[in-house]
Amino acid sequence: MHGIFRRKAIDASDRGAGQTLTPTLSWPHLMALGVGAIVGTGILTLIGVGADRAGPAVILSFVIAGGICACAALAYAEMATMMPASGAAYSYSYAVLGEIIAWVVGWSLILEYSLVVSTVAVGWSGYAAPLLTSIGFPAMLTQGPELGGLVNVPAIGIIGIVAALLIFGTRESATLNAVLVAVKLVALTVFVVVTLPYFNAANLEPFMPYGFPKSVDAAGAERGVMAAAAIIFFAFYGFDAISTAAEETKNPARDLAIGIVGSMVACIIIYMLVAVAAVGAVSYTAFANSAEPLALVLRELDQPAAATFLAVSAVIALPTVLLAFLFGQSRIFFTMARDGLLPRSLAKISSRGSPVRITIFTAIIVAIIAGVLPIDQIAALANAGTLAAFIAVSVCMLVLRRRAPNAERRFRAPLAWVVGPAAILGCLYLFFSLPSQTQFWFLLWNIGGLAVYFGYARKNAAD
């Protein structure tokens, strides 16, 4: 037995035979992993939700949300290069804040990644279902019970395919991911190129019709730049999956920082270009709250071919989000199992250098969620898990700046005492901007997690 706040050095992890991941990745793979995770359904849908809340000032909402995420990314980059372990925020918390905090962070990450993978799989299935039913596939098998179906087989199937890629090999799946990410970026580039010639400054007036702070209108809807930023923030996260690849990176001291910061910078630029092009091309009221705002903008401009290309490219490339988050989820599970907080038998590496057992275990869990559970009612929980992890990593960075000021830092976050608090306060604000029901379920999830910790994990943790 040991104290619940016991800290564990990263290099002291129990890495016996069959428990060490094989380094096969370089910074281009990490950049693609990050961009693949970040640029997903968020930019394709949330710009419409944001425009409904902020009007043309949704552009400013993207700046604010991206700024908060950039601060968190800088903290991740510093911690990842100091402690290149596959557990990411969980491992940093174990080394800096203690075991029980690490457990809560790891438990929150399990929630985040599971729900993101499941939700994206269900979203992908929504695009694939019409094609499948047109060739005779039973409609009952294309959606879960909450929508009147039996089980969502396409969602389960795409998770199985992505899991098989990860089992086949980390480098091979990362290379395919890079190709699919390129497809996605080409589609967004086409959108910007097609819409920018239609830019009209009159579409930006009035720029801030609902004001800056979050407010509630007469109909009970949340409005304002900050209300939109709280939603848009969730189009940015995903870069944290890069830090889970630390043990599989050939030169982590250099490549992790390039991957994390580089993917965030690239995505902020992409999002800003897309937002400016969309809002400038047509009135925001034309696509506000649309389920497919970018395609709608293209159709409003009488560009149906470009709209179709965008939709098809999204379906082809959407599995990059699944790959990045399923990769991260399996590595969090793997590290917690290697530390004894979860069954150690899961921390087994195949001859190809990938954690086969934990990947299969993870895929089964998220496939069950995607196949039968009402994702639309609980997906917001993923956001709460993300914010908890971002806050923990930023705290770890600041604590180590005090506790070990002279420790080697291959990457130093600039203005740490500005960046760190900005990330913490920004994430706290966004957490309390979540629906109260989401906060309640997040609390309930972690109460259950603490029961597992005191009932199993604490007594089985490695000394």
Automatic annotation (TrEMBL):
Transmembrane segments: 30-50, 57-77, 89-110, 122-141, 147-168, 175-199, 219-239, 260-287, 307-334, 355-375, 381-400, 412-432, 438-456
Principal place of residence: membrane
UniProt keyword annotations, A-Z: Membrane, Transmembrane, Transmembrane helix, Transport
UniProt cross-references to PANTHER family, sorted A to Z: CATIONIC AMINO ACID TRANSPORTER 4, INNER MEMBRANE TRANSPORTER YGJI-RELATED
Keyword Transcription among UniProt keywords: no
Record's bilayer topology term: Multi-pass membrane protein
Entry protein name: Amino acid permease
Domain of life (superkingdom): Bacteria
InterPro entries: AA/rel_permease1
Localisation per UniProt entry: Membrane
